[in-house]
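Explain this fold:

***
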Amino acid sequence: IASDAAQLRWRAKIASDSLLGEGHTGGRYTVRLSLVDATGQVAATIDTPVEVAESDIAEVNASLAVPNPHLWQGTADPYLYKLVAELLRHWLGATPAWRRNARLKPASLS
């Protein structure tokens, strides 16, 4: 992390619905990561394609570049970003299949 740039590395495992007993097969997905600043503006975003086979688990690794990050300054300026991860399934277009919000603390950034 520097005042002019930061790199966020993110990893997740995605299981096909058939592993969860929901009867759907695998397919093509896009994992969209958006880093949202304290004002609600998207500071950085990346789309990563992933293919999930039926009855399988796929791993997604993404690296998100954050230009000019607002650095954490302890109790003097406890600035937090929000990471939004969306899983988009490709049928006729990209349709949201899942969305998760997570708060990042400084120790989570590298």
Remarks:
- The longest strand covers residues 5-15.
- Residues 102-110 have pLDDT under 50 and may be disordered.
- The radius of gyration is 16 Å.
- The CA atoms of residues 60 and 82 lie 19 Å apart.
